Every structure is written in structure tokens, then in C-alpha cells.
Amino acid sequence: MFSRLREDIAAIRERDPAARSAWEVVTCYPGFHAVVLHRIAHASWVSGGRWFGRFVSQFARFLTGIEIHPGATLGRRVFIDHGMGVVIGETAVIGDDCTIYQGVTLGGTSLERGAKRHPTLERGVIVGAGAKVLGGFTVGADAKIGSNAVVVKPVPAGGTAVGNPARVVMPATAKPVEKDCTPERSAFCAYGITPNADDPVSLAIHGLIDHASTQTHRVDEIVAALDKLGTRIDAISGVDNAAFIDLKRLSDVMKGEAARR
């Protein structure tokens, strides 16, 4: 038990630069208190002491503002940062080295008793502030859930989910771990924010603009080649000169858009 406590304290100090000492973590971090009390409640729950488990859980909620059902399963080195308003349901499973920020809900969408109603977070998942993960699916290892995202479908390992409903905007990629970094540190990203995590709709629009700009550039090359051969556009059989004029205008618009970007 004491080894688990030491692990929890070390994990918090590693992931939170505001933690200045182990004593500060033990006395002033509600996430640490909630995890420790949950272990007591969970042990009572699985051994048949359901009422006492719920009572300890309720006391932890009153003390920390973090509600963890005693039936939920928490792994090692789980860090609940700030924590106010966190709700973790009965059948939720949280893997080792996960980080959860304030206002997060790991909720269920089914009323069926005994079923897996709440999500499973695999190792190293980070859930940003205000995110809602709803359903009995799995969020893959080292995945990141952006702040205020509403996740209702599985997230692949290493992916990043943002928005409402959440969309995976960064596919899972295997990245080598630097020799001087632990896996937890190399994968950690506060609040689930990652570099270049652009909105997928914006990425799609920019891709279409780039494609259209390339096509109009090719049209310009064809027109220039025909001019060099002394062939007039309106003399080509089956070609509407007005269509080429429209394409030319579109090319100018796309070039202007590319210049503004």
C-alpha cells in the first residue's frame, strides 16, 4: 500500500509543476485524497461491503468534489488534477498512468443492470477539462481527449479526439521514446492538447483549395502550350471558351486564397 502511495505522489509531482513537495501533495491535493479513499471504498465493495463502500465514496465526494463510484476500477499512478466536478461511473475502468482534469464525466448511456455501461481508458490516456466520455467502449492507450469534447465512440490508441460529437483528428502513430524520457513523460500532454491538432473540417477545406489550385495551374500550362503552338482556344472542337474563362477566374481566386494563407 505504501509503495502505491509513493507512486501516486511521484506521478503527481512529475505531471504538475505546481507541486513543490510530497507533503504538499499529501495534504493539499484533492485528486490524491479521492484516489486513496476510492481504494478503500473499492476494496470494501468487491468484498461485499457495498454500503460501507458507498459511504466512503460519498464522504470522498463531500471532501474533494470528486465522485468515483466504489465499483469503478482505477489503475496505478492515476492523477486527477484539480478534480472538482469529476464523475466516474460504476463500470468504468481507468488504466495505469491516466490523467483526468476537472469537470470530466465518464458516464453510461444504458440502464441495463450488470452491463458494461461506462468507458474503459487504457494506459496513459489524458482526458481534458470538461470532457464527457459516454458509453461502454474503449479509449486506446496514450489517446488524448480534448477539453469539452463529447466522446460517444471508441478512440484508437494514440489518437486525439476533439469536438462535439468528438472526431479523431490525429491518427494513432507509433513514436519512438527518447532514451532520457520515461514513456509517461514522453506521452504526457496537459489537457489533451497536441501540436497542430487542427479541426478536420478546416483541414479538408484547405485540402480542396490546394487541389483546385493545382488543377487550375495545370489548365494555365495547357493554355500557354496551346498559345505557343498557335492554336486559339475558341478554335478547338468541342471546347467552350467561356468554360476556360471561368476556370481562369477560379484560378485567380484560388491563387489569392493561397496567398492569404
From TrEMBL:
Keywords noted in UniProt: Acyltransferase, Amino-acid biosynthesis, Cysteine biosynthesis, Cytoplasm, Repeat, Transferase
Catalytic activity of the protein: L-serine + acetyl-CoA = O-acetyl-L-serine + CoA
UniProt main location, coarse: cytoplasm
A GO cellular-component term linked to this record: cytoplasm
EC numbers for this chain: 2.3.1.30
UniProt-listed InterPro entries: Hexapep, LbH_SAT, Ser_AcTrfase_N, Ser_AcTrfase_N_sf, Ser_O-AcTrfase, Serine_acetyltransferase, Trimer_LpxA-like_sf
Cellular compartments annotated: Cytoplasm
GO terms, molecular function: serine O-acetyltransferase activity
One GO BP: cysteine biosynthetic process from serine
Domain Serine acetyltransferase N-terminal: from-to ranges: 4-35
Pathway(s): Amino-acid biosynthesis; L-cysteine biosynthesis; L-cysteine from L-serine: step 1/2
Record family assignment: Belongs to the transferase hexapeptide repeat family.
NCBIfam families membership: cysE, EPS_EpsC
Protein name (database record): Serine acetyltransferase
Source species of the chain: Caballeronia sordidicola (Burkholderia sordidicola)
